[in-house]
Design brief:
The protein is an alpha+beta fold. It is built from seven helices and ten strands. It folds into two domains: about 130 residues, N-terminal domain of MutM-like DNA repair proteins, CATH 3.20.190; about 120 residues, Helicase, Ruva Protein, domain 3 (Orthogonal Bundle), CATH 1.10.8.
């Protein structure tokens, strides 16, 4: 499943290539499970709107949209910059959001095609159909906000408070999206390795020093992964269809039995909170 670095990379790619473009029309497939907003409502809501920008919130890509009607003379500047709607994309397990052209072959499992005034298309492809698409009219409802704290900006006190008194393993706590939004299996394993903390440790029993070490390791790992375009361990590609490179630097994730890059001890794999979990028994305590 795409995690914070992958979603950040895609959102930035969409923003860079499509900011200011206008949606001419939108087509959606007939798989209702994908749509938090009915496909017909999304098609009607998106048509004619300008893409003011795209950003990541947790594991969601939020496209900020302008007015569906052209601004009047006295209203031009305000409507050109103030979002009046949002298109919200959750990639699920295998979702991809691609900027392409109408001439590009349409992949099977394409569930959304946004035709743009520039002649480009924004396509949502999802073979396993665990992704979700949603449209919000900001004149009638609140804008999207993530369920948990932002790992890239949370401070020491707030980070420690998230886990205070919690009896669940720290790996499970990191995966809890109501605590931290965007962290998944890859970056929980990698961050715990860099912090020197075993994934089974009880979250509420970590010392303040360990918590701060984990906070900094998590931020450093996520930022480095973003710089490398994310981890392509399955179907993930960015908005241009390009694979990421951070998987080449994984220290523990999916390296079961391979030597630790620090101490040469074989990496172990356990099942924790229903997820395959990787760690070094020598470097992590």
């Amino acid at each position: 499943m795409p995690e914070l670095p992958e979603v950040e990379t895609i959102a930035c790619g969409v923003d860079e290539r499509l900011r200011g473009d206008r949606i001419i029309q939108a087509w959606f497939s007939r798989h209702p499970r994908l749509f938090k907003t009915p496909a017909k409502n999304q098609s009607e809501g998106l048509a004619g709107r300008t893409l003011l920008g795209a950003h990541r919130t947790g594991k969601h890509i939020v496209c900020e949209l302008g007015s569906a009607s052209g601004p009047g003379a006295g209203d031009r500047i305000r409507r050109a910059s103030v979002p009046e709607a949002q298109w919200i994309v959750h990639l699920g397990m295998t979702g991809r959001l691609l900027v392409t052209t109408p001439e590009s072959p349409v992949e099977s499992h394409t569930h959304a095609r946004l035709c743009l005034a520039s002649g480009r298309e924004l396509r949502f492809v999802d073979p396993r159909r665990f992704g979700r698409l949603e449209f919000r009219d900001l004149r009638r409802e609140a804008g999207f906000s993530g369920p948990g704290a932002e790992p890239l900006s949370i401070g020491p006190e707030a980070f420690a408070a998230l886990f205070h008194g919690r009896q669940l393993p720290i790996k499970a706590a990191l995966l809890n999206q109501t605590l931290l939004a965007g962290v998944g299996n890859i970056y929980a394993d990698e961050s715990l390795f860099h912090a020197g903390i075993r994934p089974r440790r009880q979250a509420g029993r970590l010392s303040r020093t360990e918590m701060e070490r984990l906070r900094l390791a998590l931020r450093e790992v996520l930022e480095h992964a973003i710089r490398l375009g994310g981890s392509s361990v399955s179907d993930y590609v960015d908005a241009n269809g390009v694979r990421g490179f951070f998987q080449l630097e994984h220290c523990v994730y999916r390296r079961t039995g391979e030597p630790c890059r620090r101490c040469q001890t074989p990496i172990r794999r356990i099942l924790l909170a229903g997820r395959g979990t990787h760690y070094c028994p020598q470097c992590q305590h």
